[in-house]
Amino acid sequence: MKTTYKYKYLVLCIGLLFTVTACNEFLDINTDPNNPTEAPLPLLMTSAQVDIAGALGSSIGGLSAIPQAYMHQMFQRGTTEGDYGVNGADFEIITPWTILYTLGLNDLEQIIIQGETLEAWSHVGVAQIIKAYAFSLMVDMYGDVPYTEAFQHTENIAPAYEDDEAVYDKLLLLLDDAIENLATAPSVALGGEDLIYAGDLDKWRKFAKSVKLKMYTQMRLVRNVSTEVNALLTEGDLISAADGSDDFQFVYNNVAAPDNRNPAFTQEWTTGASQYYINPYFYETLAGLNTFGHRGYGEDLALVDPRIPYYFYNQLAPGDNAENPCAYCDLDVNGNNIVPELTNTGFLSIYMFSFNIDPSEGFDQSSSQTVAGLYPVGGAYDTGAGGTVAATQGLQGASTQRFLGLDAIHYLAAELYLSGDATGDDVAALSAAIQASFDKVNSIAATAGADPIPQADIDTYITTVMNDYAIQTDAGKMEHIMTQKWIASFGFACDAYTDYRRTGYPEIHDGNTDNLAVTVQVRDFPYAFPWVNSNLEINPSAPSQKEIATSAARIFWDPS
Questions:
Q1: Domain coordinates in residue numbering, the chain
Q2: What one-character-per-residue DSSP string does 445-468 give?
Q3: I need a labelling partner for 559 at 20 to 30 A (CA). Which of 101, 180, 200, 307 fits?
Q4: What is the pTM of this model?
């Protein structure tokens, strides 16, 4: 049923592409004033933002689905992403590509074209910013993509795949154009159709410059970006509001019909339907444990992360037996302790790299497995009482899909200051980044009526991290920055995947060097997504499929 639903959605998206083209051709033969051939700008803006948020987000149909598996945060049980084995026919590869090109990005292109004619410069500028951001993430994941020749419809049905670095450069110019357009008096104001910033052009400008900072930072190992990043940091016209109001994010509500809930919530909190398992490696990093034998970030710091009950929801209360034999849990169905370190936690998951190896890996744990909780998807805060997930719990999906926030700006600054690409205090920047990460969790907690993390606990956490940071080499300091950024990224993993490929941090689970007999890593870490097979087959301008674990697949900003 789950697979059927997913593919029905994909078929609908693909069908829409051909429907739109056919309708346009049909309507060309006549002009009916009661049936306009162009959608109004407000409708296009709202539709584009909804589609872009879903296509980039953390549900199985979103761009972040594969990166959160690659970065050992959450993954599905199976033979593909559980061992880096995705291919160009996989749903998680096809769906974001299809939704972006046929719906979200296509709508943005129409806004730009119509808006320039109407001199609706606010709409044009915002559409250009979202387009630049979405395409930058597509380059980060796929590498070369159709860009300049895309959306030409009947004029060019075979757009060329453009060099990834060339696309990046064009996106930076597009952001400059967008900023100029935001400053130009429009013929019509941007208002409630803007579901992200409600027409606040100052916030859109800050976001545009923040995207530039992120892109330049990601290029720093292959290009001298000191002039650009110093100028952006010195100017300070970036995401900066302490209350999170500048953050680029999409806020869903709890309306189920029509469904406006966070797609990841409806996926994870429908009884018996949870798709993702929390990666034990990620959990142990936060819990200060180390059963893997080759990694102990949290253990080394003697640090238990106070965000755990906001990140994860245990369906088992401490002392409860699992419903079936379990691979990574406290008590199995017969009350036998499986992982002593999990005693009285209620946490249950499976190991990555264990498919068809661990004899307990294949059992259904839909009423026992730990799921993504309040913070990432709008579920419930974990009070320790257990209980099967249901769509009526917690925020009921009225949650935020985060993309780029204040914490990320501080993490970028810390990286740039440490690397010497910008002038500033990396210690202060990292401390501010961690504080902002906790503040974001507390803002979600406040929305849900959950108790906030006490500032005293936050201060203890930051002090512990910064004390160790102070005695590290530059490499150890970079690991701290990237590990803290990775922990904070839970719920949107695209940038963490990019950071790991650029810097080699955080350290992630190696299925062949741990101390576990039930994990075997067969495949090498992928440097990029594969392209969509069906598009390669029908587009004569497309390249041949790439081998994603070879150096030839590296994105241009990855020199290693």
A1: 2-25+37-199+526-552
A2: HHHHTPPPPPHHHHHHHHHHHHHH
A3: 101
A4: 0.93
